[in-house]
Amino acid sequence: MSPRILMLGTALDTRGGISSVVRVYEQYGLFERFGIQYIATHCDGSAARKLWRALAAIATYATALLRGPALVHVHVASRASFWRKSPFFLLAFLLRVPAVLHLHGAEFALFYDQECGALRRRFVSFVFDHCARVIVLSAAWKAWAQRMCENPNVLAIYNPVLLPPKLPPWERRTPGTALFLGRLGHRKGTYDLLDAAARIAPGRPALRLLLGGDGELETVRARATELGIADKIDLLGWVRGEDKERLLATAAIYVLPSYNEGLPVSVLEAMAAGLPILTTPVGGIPEAVTDGVEGFLVEPGNVAALADRLERLLGDPALARRMGEAARHKVDVAFSANAVVPQVEALYLGMGLRGADVSSLAGGSTR
User: Containing H/E element for 226?
Assistant: First the structure.
């Protein structure tokens, strides 16, 4: 049977938030219930490998479009991601297949407002305006999108996470450990975190920064050496699977002092694991973390405040535990797959997929 929905995004084994979200959709059964064919338009690796994946995706997509799917659901970020997905949108518009634009890019506003000239901004707005629905990750991003385009069908749907079935005892967590997951560099606030750690390190001999991710590893290592805290950091590279689960189960706090975000999956995963969160009020983060409840929010670049909150959480395990419990509850109520995926299903049903159609379909996946 032909797929009813074509979903496009990066390959499911790549790094980043889009693949994490789509994997939750698949694991939750969305692909099977709605007959979704997933087409990977991008992958990790060399430029040649990425080009081959993009060309193969166009061929697969064009063939699938001719079979008459009910709709196209495209996961997109800023810059190269948007330009790479543009031909897929235009083909859908040409063949009058309703398209859903699902915006994930943490820096999409910066990309649109400051990096695109007038002609490119008009094209970006054209794509947004001609989509049947636009999904963004938070109320804050919805307000921005409604100012940027004229599409009346912009809705906010949070990123979903799968809840670990059982949390480990708090006593298993290692005192003094702060976990960071993401691409190391300025945007994620990595250097601010190093500066904050250097401020509190003299009074915290057990301090340990666990930095999981790719990016500017050698620059981070050099900066830590310059600050005299090279022995306090562990550069773990990109972590996933059981290694990530172990880190989330044994760290004492989670830190992500970003300058720009959509709604970071890493924060939601840390909350689901019962960790208190130290982060910044950017993008959709304030809708997940209330300052003083599930953790602390500090302004991006405020190293003094970051150091103060880091010291408070590491120095007060009872406070950290209470905030971690609150974080777990918040995710369960608002960000778990049980809470979020039905909203995607409701969107599909509202666009004409009937319940009887859904129950009879078998899903497919093209990776």
Answer: helix 217-227
Helix (H, G, I), strand (E, B) or coil at 31: helix
- Looking at residue 44, the DSSP 8-state letter turns out to be S
Q: Cβ distance 78 to 108 under 8 Å?
A: yes
- Only one residue has tokens 């790094």, namely 15
Single-letter amino acid code for the residue at 267: V
Q: How far apart are CA 31 and CA 171, in angstroms?
A: 39
Identify any residues that bridge with 189 across adjacent strands, giving them in sequence order: none
Q: CA 17, 21, 26 angle in degrees (round to 5)? A: 145
Record the tokens describing residue 299, joined without a space. 């302004």
Tens-digit pLDDT profile for residues 102-125 = 999 899 999 999 999 999 999 999
Closest CA to 210 of 237, 238, 235: 235
> Residue 278 belongs to what H/E stretch?
strand 277-279
Structure tokens at 27: 């694991």
Distance, in Å, from the CA atom of 328 to the CA atom of 167, rounded to the nearest integer, reads 9
Rounded to whole angstroms, how far apart are CA atoms 13 and 319?
36
Cα 174 to Cα 185: distance, rounded to the nearest angstrom: 25
> Per the structure block, which two tokens stand in for 125?
């707005």
Report yes or no: 72 and 92 within 8 Å, Cβ to Cβ.
Answer: yes
Helices (H) and strands (E) in the chain, counts: 16, 13
Q: At what angle do helices 317-330 and 303-315 cross, to 10 degrees?
A: 100
Provide the Cα torsion 255, 261, 262, 265; round to 10°: -30
Instruction: State the pairing for strand pair 71-76/233-237.
Output: unpaired
* The model scores a pTM over 0.90: yes
List pLDDT tens digits, range 199-232.
Answer: 999 999 999 999 999 999 999 999 999 999 999 9
Torsion over CA: 219, 220, 225, 226 (sign): positive
